[in-house]
Queue: 4 jobs
Job 1
Amino acid sequence: MSVIRSVVRGVGSYLPERLVTNADLAAEVDTSDEWIVQRTGIRERHIAADGQMTSDLGVRAARSALADAGLEASDIDLIVLATSTPDQTFPATAATIQAELGITHGAAFDLQAVCSGFVFALSTADAHLRTGMFKRALVIGAETFSRILDWTDRGTCVLFGDGAGAVVLEGVAAEAAGARGVITSHLRTDGRHRTKLYVDGGPSSTQTVGHLRMEGREVFRHAVGMITDVIEDAFAATGESADTIQWFVPHQANRRIIDASAQKLQIAPGKVVTTVDRHGNTSAAYIKLALDVARKDGRIQDGDLVLLEAMGGGFTWASALVRW
């Protein structure tokens, strides 16, 4: 039986039209553009319109990825949506996206790993494709974090934005895929840290949506170590290194974490894809947004080895190596 590799066929993204700058926020809360940029590197973020739901963003990103892949929605038989801000408690928002795309076969489900969601979803879709159970998957990250922010808390409301990104994965026989595809992924969770970054609501606890709460210093303190942990595992599993990768697409949450992680791993600054200044932290959507930017501006080329990493509430953290 032939070995199957999960190959990236297309990538797409969508950002809501409403743009909110640091100056806009400074007019509402006790902050400033200088304060936000110095601590995070963020200059602006996009916010979903009234009535615009996570599924709406996900559908737009999915269609963009399908167009990039040269495929129709009917070619997809698996949708894995990473999100922490579903349209409703159930059914899965992935099912809504499936219906909006006109797909009536296969499977669709949500996955919740907060900011690590995309890498968790990528790994999950990869595992399903490798078994031969499905042929082509849409892996989507979509978030409307603006709906769970406390807009009076300057420590969190300045950090996040809304958006969606998607990739199309196809299961291809290894001899046809060559070196392309998802090479390795490494996923971690340590629930002892769950109260350092969480939402203070939920159906079972408060019967409310709640707001995002974060111990910023604690998250920063753990982030660099956790990120390098799973990346070193990826290098050990494959024999690759900071020298052999072409691109590093990190968690777009904080420019200081990105720079510190790359420096600790000895990844050259020119290899780091950074979009946090334009998007803020879009949680499960941020990697795909950054991938789409780097693909469309010509940086990521076919055959490039791309390193992905993420870290989020839980704590969760993850890495993946993908040959484009």
Job 2
Amino acid sequence: MSNMELVKMIDLSRCTACRGCQVACKQWNELPASKTKNWGSYQNPADLEWNTWTLIRFQEYVDAKGRFKWLFRKDGCMHCTDAACVKVCPTQALYHTEFGTVAFDPERCIGCKDCIPACPFNIPRFNEQTKKIGKCDLCLSRLRANKPPACVLSCPTGALSIGPKAEMIEKAYKRAKALGEGASVYGDKFVGGTHVIYVLPEPVSAYPGLPENPSVPLPIILWKDVLKPASVIAGGGVLAAAFLHYILHGPKRPVEDTQEGGSEI
């Protein structure tokens, strides 16, 4: 894989919930296991965690024709182009890579947790012990070594694939068309386009946790894209005015007392 914009496609019509991707993610990233308990679902653990970056979600579903189905969804970071987490991170611990993905540098993380409410997909998780967040980086070290992410390599059914952005989006739409019956592509039309896209065999509304119109929260847009640049411009204007005054009038000197009878100190 060369240094180009990459997209991972998740074809949920081919997912069998084997959880091979979930295990492969843990192994490659050396993430410790959590102590879990039976909570009435095959889904384990119950949610994403600082040490669980990939999770297969299980859902019982009845479609419009009254047919019962199991829906499985691989959940994890969507790697947005217009990434709210990157926008709010004050230390650049979250950043875009040469592949367009969003990576994380734990050494820079100060535990502010601003990225957690900012993410429209509810992805980053906080580690109370280390006071840092954790999330998928799409196996950046593997991408740089020209290898697919561990989850893609582990998938036995071809539900996961990765490749150049344009190629993968075209592939996703062809697959959705072949599936028919309301199948759709999710991820390429919002937040600047995500670098993880789904082929959904059922309507978006059938998958809890997938917002129909995800976007960067308005307060973040106002602060990062409007108010902050304006404050920089304003600050630059003050500096420019001060410099111009210096050029025209020279440095400001203290006024000397030249009146007669002035007292000496």
Job 3
Amino acid sequence: MMHVKTSNEISIMLEGGKILAEVLSNLLSKVRPGVSELELDTLAEKLIKEKGAEPGFKRVKGYKHTICVSTNDVVVHGVPTEYRLKVGDIIGIDCGVYYKGFNTDMAETVKISNIKYQTSKRDDEIDKFLKTGKRALEEGIKVARLGNRVGHISKKIQDIVEGAGYSVVRSLVGHGVGKSLHEEPEVPGYLNERIEQTPLLVEGLTIAVEVIYNMGKKDVIYANNDGWSIKSKDSSLSGLFERTIAITKDGPLVLTQV
């Protein structure tokens, strides 16, 4: 069952989304060589609480952190560790905020760079990889319009990602979001049925649109024996981009606008 939100509930989610976007933007500004994943996690919790909200991910049973960290070949749900970032790494930060009874969820992936670091062919490949994921997210959101279906989002993401020679991860998908962090409907980044058979996008629906993709093949595995971290099976780089949006009569409203 899809949970349609009232205009007042969407306003609350917009407030929470603004908090989340500010926190994530702050975290990304601190991403540099030598910073540890756990330091970013500690900062995220501090910032969220200072803004009068709660870390949404800490409300997930069994999870003890504020963010999930996807470094290099980690796809999603990476548990922050003492690992210190190095030039050439890529890191995806996934974060959630719980505010006045509602969740918002977002993620961004960036490359660790240094102005003294000479770029290489690999850097160019990584830049293209990340730009592709960001474009797939932006274009996927554009078609999240009243009267369209989830399949329109899925197809747009798949066409862009696979058109660039990368792989959409099949076992991990976007989702509805609201009073619960994960609600119906699922929002895959790929189309596995006719668009007409996918859920209709109705006014008041709030969803987390996610682009979850690998530079190599689509297959993933659990790793690190922590029960959470999922990596690419072939150890290829992975990217993650996500925004929470609302379906409105005026078009898609990004609730976690950076």
Job 4
Amino acid sequence: MAAGSSSDARPVLLVGATGDLGGRVLRALRARGKPVRALVRPGSDVSGLPTDGVEIVRGDMLDPASLGPAFAGVSAAVSTAIGYSRRQEGDSLRTDYEGNRHLVEAAKSAGIPRFVFLSILACDKAPGVPHFWAKKVTEDALKELGVPFVSLRPGAFLGAPSGRYGKWMREGLEKGRVMGMTPAGVRMTYIAPGEVARAIAMAVDEPRALGRTIDLGSDRPLSGPELAELVGRLLGRPMTMRSMFGPGFGLLGRIAGLFNPGMREMMAMGRFFQTGQYIADTRLQGELFGPIPKVEDAARAMLKGLDLLPGPSRT
């Protein structure tokens, strides 16, 4: 059994295993010797999930009657599921509000000893950002219903996305452009998704984490220009920063937001980033989960994942 794992033979329920972060969490749990029960929607493709030590249970967060079997006899539950990204057809904020509420109620009914919830940094300060506020509402539900919980609040993921977004990011970097989310005078917290997965896997049985809300981040926040300088230093060539929320993009975003809910949410998130409140207090993270990761390591892993630096990406 992996170092740091417990001898509890009951599975850890994982909601969101087919997503990028959920897949990382699954692998991190298995590396710690934890059996995993993955709650997967009917019809979702599970061919990419490992089979050793992994049980698949079908159910849907929006169908509370389907959740009982998934929660029966587990040592802990973990939810990384989101709907606001609209990764699959039919995804929406209903998953983040109603779906998470159903999970909390199912956890209460089953009497599970711990619910590890993936929240968002500073979500309680952002009522104008719908998917941020959904996390705060779920944290409130966990407390209201008396479910033993750990809420992890990571900053912005600094990683290599897959699909079209990853291709777009790589093309921009090859042209010397880094997409920043804050101007020179405003910093924000970034973290590698692999570090988030590691903390989640540790949180399922770290006794000091129970009942805590824990910020997750890297060793220091960065402004957009500082992120561009860091990426340029790693690539060995100058990079320029383009703001995702600059004047031109802002106008287009407001127009597109009239017809696209996802764009409205993105613009609201961008306005919140400009407030300078999206900065993690990593003291508790360091106490519970070990040394705070360096933002250089997150950026390096991102570039490796995009095949812009040699070597495997581990975060």
